[in-house]
Amino acid sequence: MTTRALLLTAVLCSLGCDSAATQEPVPSEPPAARQSPSGDEAAPEASPPMTDRKPDRMTDRKPQTHISGATDAVLSGDDTDDALEVLLDGLTDADQTGLRIDAPFVVDAGATALPVVGAFVRVPEAGEAFENEVAVIATQGDAITVQPALRSPKMKGGKKRPASDVIRGSNFAFDALARLSSVDFAVPTRLWVGYGPYLSNGVTVRVGGEAPLAPGGSTSVSLEGPSSAPTEPGGTVTLSGTAPASTQVHIVALGGPDAFVSAVEADGAGSFSVNLLGDNPLPKAPGTWHVYAFCGEHVAGPVSIELTPGSKPW
What is the DSSP secondary structure assignment for residue 245, as one 8-state letter? Predict the structure, then answer.
């Protein structure tokens, strides 16, 4: 894995991964997101590519595109420094910060690695520990897997950096096959990288077969909730949203070394809700949590909630 930190005067991506439906644009100030139908910001998704392949007219899907100058061959090569340089060359918009990733859309069956490269551009906050808290999120239909993207099994705490008023960019790389060992990548798999209020574009990858297309159609998901609330046993903090009718939605909360994940069903009208403080794996401790709703290839959020101590301790 290669990790570098740079002082950037001209930053963030004009990285091209085409969008469809709730697909993401280039990321903006944290979180890198767009407005969802509910008025909350919906996390960005990847954009489509120019290839000889025609869009699937039945599903309104288009081919994905890599960042400028990248190819599956470059991203699958032995020298990940080349791919990281390509990613950093795409950091051209001085007005934006965020997370961006790229990966080969397909690697040969039997491949031993599926590299993901990324760039994170931000004004660092006090106590930031990016390597310790950044997560990789993978979805396949109704299934989701969330794992540390960079933290080693023995890492007890990442290096906490001081605050800065200077925009900094870091690049990183990891092997999705190693990080997500329980995932069957023979099935098209949508990948994101998330760190607190920052969520990357999504990239759909697979091992073997044809390169998967970008998400398409009119499918969308939304999420809303309060910006602050007390946390105590028996309390109620409602997160609600919309998704395709009768589908499973995964609520993912980021804000510490480990992600919190809980599943909820959208009803026949496409509505869902969950009590953050209810009987579920979502966070209950005081602090600031950044909550996303994943539904298949689509995502909304974050809703950033500051939980404050209530009158009764947990």
Answer: T
Percent over 90 (pLDDT), the chain: 58
Residue 15 has what pLDDT?
33
Question: In the structure, what pLDDT confidence band is assigned to residue 164 with cuts at 50, 70 and 90?
Answer: confident
